UniProtKB/TrEMBL annotation:
It is found in: Endoplasmic reticulum membrane. Keywords: Acyltransferase, Endoplasmic reticulum, Membrane, Transferase, Transmembrane, Transmembrane helix. It holds the Pfam family MBOAT. Residues 212-232, 475-507 are annotated as: Disordered. GO terms for cellular component: endoplasmic reticulum membrane. It is a multi-pass membrane protein. This is Membrane bound O-acyltransferase domain containing 2a. GO terms for molecular function: acyltransferase activity. GO terms for biological process: lipid modification. It comes from Echeneis naucrates (Live sharksucker). Its main location: endoplasmic reticulum. Residues 481-495 have a biased composition (Basic and acidic residues).
Length: 507
């Protein structure tokens, strides 16, 4: 995408028009107004970010005075092909034992480099549809593919989890298959990410067969006659969801801006409990933007016939194989984990498969850090995900230590659900504020206005209510099973010895 440098004079050709077709008076006025608004929020100086693009980046991006006539579409395509080409070369020429690691470093590194240059080119805090969005999806696909090839060609089935067995790839994809998977038109802009095996089953026309034969009601030729599944109803439903989400977002985004939470007059003159309610409503008004994009992307894939995931108990087809969110589960989530599990589902699965299940040291922190690096280079992303680490640990401690006391009756369970729902919504809103504000100054201004209360509370909960990690619990359970098995074997052995001794005495 071309950038406009307003610090340079605009050259004009003989006809008097600007030499760059991308500069218009309306765009200039809009950009100046947008810049003033961002300076009001973020300040007029960012010490770590230069005001101008470095000259070394001129060959990569066209400026107002550049003579290059390369269209933005070609430049975007070059970035996609460069990232995909480098990664495929690593897959082909690197050894299978470490191929997935090298591919992960190259692919993610290229994405981060492009994100850094984009921040240098465009104004700080500017939301725009840029080429790094599709590259984020391609990064997920490439790294997932590398790990799946590694699992399929270097590991035995006993070393893989059930999901890894399903996703493992037993042969190297051809260049055509590889580029088709990465750059197919259905998911090139907004995803969602899908596994290579699911995509190839869709391309080869075998995606319906295994799921077509198994009915959720347990009757293969039962009450419901299953014909070729049609996505029509689901596509219409998802398009209606898109329309409602877009209407809500456009109606409320201007009325409930998140930036008001750091306004001095608002902070000084509004009671704290009303600030909490406002923050929740502001985040509630912001989420439909993501609902619209992800639901529309899901509907596009379904309309093409991709996303079939078996049948419901009533025999109706399910089209949620690559769905990216469950709106009701998000809005009524009663835990931090439940919210994250239903938000950006395919990205959460990618993080789980390439990081959480494979990282030997502190997988929770590593997963949140990888998520921050994947999202971009704004400091607000890192503040959000670092806060998310503490929130997750505290929520896990509360669930393991306090929740059992509320399971004694249904009434107690309902009270617990209401309390945890309110706490989850406030915690999510508090955590995500830097993700929206992007900059360090406004983010810390918000947290100072709240006296870092949730940070301190979570740290106190983690210290006061320690809990074993899930890996330790799984290992303890496995050790317990092994001990039980050894005891059973020892018991059987002793019983056999006793029987033999009795027979010897009888003889």
């Amino acid at each position: 995408m071309c950038a406009v440098d307003y610090n340079r004079p605009v050259r004009r050709n003989s006809s008097g028009s600007c030499s760059s077709v991308f500069v218009t008076a309306a765009a200039e006025g809009s950009e100046v107004n947008g810049r003033k608004e961002r300076e009001r929020i973020y300040g007029s100086h960012q010490a770590w970010l230069p005001k101008r693009r470095h000259r070394a980046l001129d060959p990569l991006y066209c400026s107002q005075s550049a003579k290059s006539s390369i269209s933005p579409s070609i430049r975007y395509s070059l970035h996609f092909l460069m990232q995909s080409g480098l990664s495929y070369s690593v897959m082909v020429f690197a050894g299978l034992e470490h191929m997935h690691k090298y591919c992960f470093i190259v692919t993610l590194g290229y994405l981060i480099l492009c994100q850094i240059t984009r921040v240098y080119v465009f104004d700080y805090g500017m939301y725009s549809a840029d080429f790094t969005g599709p590259m984020m999806v391609i990064t997920q696909k490439i790294t997932s593919l590398a790990f799946e090839i590694h699992d399929g060609l270097t590991k035995r089935e006993g070393q893989l989890t059930p999901s890894q067995k399903y996703l493992a790839i037993s042969r190297m994809p051809s260049l055509l298959e590889y580029l088709s998977y990465n750059c197919n038109f259905m998911g090139i802009l907004a995803g969602p990410t899908c596994s290579y095996n699911d995509y190839m089953a869709f391309i080869e026309g075998t995606g319906y067969q295994p799921r077509h034969q198994e009915n959720a009601n347990g009757k293969e030729n039962g009450k419901y006659k299953q014909s070729e599944p049609s996505p029509k109803n689901d596509v219409i439903s998802k398009l209606c969801t898109c329309a409602i989400s877009l209407f809500i977002y456009l109606s409320l985004c201007k009325l409930l801006p998140v930036e008001r939470s750091i306004n001095d007059d608002f902070v000084n003159n509004t009671p704290f409990h009303l600030q909490v309610i406002y923050l929740y409503l502001a985040m509630l008004a912001l989420r439909p933007k993501y609902y619209f994009v992800w639901t529309l992307a899901d509907a596009i894939n379904n309309a093409a016939g991709f996303g079939f995931n078996g049948y419901n108990k009533d025999g109706s087809p399910r089209w949620d194989l690559i769905s990216n969110l469950r709106i009701l589960d998000i809005e009524f989530a009663t835990s931090f984990k439940l919210f994250l599990d239903n938000w950006n589902i395919q990205t959460a699965l990618w993080l789980k498969r390439v990081c959480y299940e494979r990282c030997p040291i502190n997988p929770t922190a590593a997963t949140f850090l990888l998520s921050a690096m994947w999202h971009g280079v704004y400091p607000g992303y890192y503040l959000t995900f670092l806060t998310g680490i503490v929130m997750t640990m505290a929520a896990r401690a509360v669930r393991h230590n306090i929740r059992p006391y509320f399971l004694v009756s249904d009434s107690h369970k309902r009270i617990y659900d209401v309390i945890t729902w309110a706490c989850t919504q406030v915690a999510i809103s508090y955590t995500v504020v830097p993700f929206v504000l992007l900059a360090v100054g406004p983010s810390f201004k918000f947290y100072r206005s709240w006296y870092f209360c949730l940070h301190l509370l979570c740290l106190l909960v983690v210290v006061a209510l320690p809990v074993k990690s899930r890996r330790r619990q799984a290992k303890a359970q496995q050790d317990g099973l092994q001990k039980d098995s050894l005891q059973e074997n020892q018991t059987e052995h002793n019983s056999t010895d006793n029987n033999c001794n009795q027979k010897d005495k009888a003889t």
